[in-house]
Amino acid sequence: MRVLIGVLAVALVALQARLWFGDGSVTELQRLEDAVAEQREDNAELQARNDALAADVADLKGGLEAVEERARRELGMIRDNETFFQVTGEREQR
Questions:
Q1: Distance CA 80, CA 31 (A)
Q2: Which of 7, 32, 59, 84 could be stapled to 66 by a disulfide with Cβ–Cβ 3.0 to 4.6 Å?
Q3: Would you kindly state where each structural domain of the chain is located, as residue ranges?
Q4: How do residues 14-43 score in pLDDT, each as one tens digit?
């Protein structure tokens, strides 16, 4: 009977050691869950960026208004008979 109890105790210790420290252990599972959560956050940010880019592409394909807006904003283009005013900041009052 003592031999059986000893064998069962050794088996229990071996299984517990594997559970806490071996492959597929609790700590490794927690690390993997954290990595999955971080990857999901990254994917959500990238998906939002992709959606914004897709909306820009659809606007640019849809008409000239988006092209004109982008040319004005990024290239500083103006139409004939328009006056361009550039405001750089407020003056300091003395």
A1: 62
A2: 59
A3: 25-76
A4: 887 777 777 777 888 899 999 999 999 999
Calpha distance 82→73 (Å, rounded): 15
Residue type for position 66: A
- In the chain, the amino acid numbered 73 is R
Under DSSP, the state recorded for 93 is: P
- Those residues with Cβ within 8 angstroms of residue 59's Cβ, 6 or more apart along the chain or in another chain: 65, 66
Write out the DSSP string of 44-92: HHHHHHHHHHHHHHHHHHH-HHHHHHHHHHHH----TT--------PPP
Q: How far is it, in rounded angstroms, from Cα 38 to Cα 75?
A: 38
Q: Is the dihedral of CA 41, 55, 75, 81 positive or negative?
A: negative
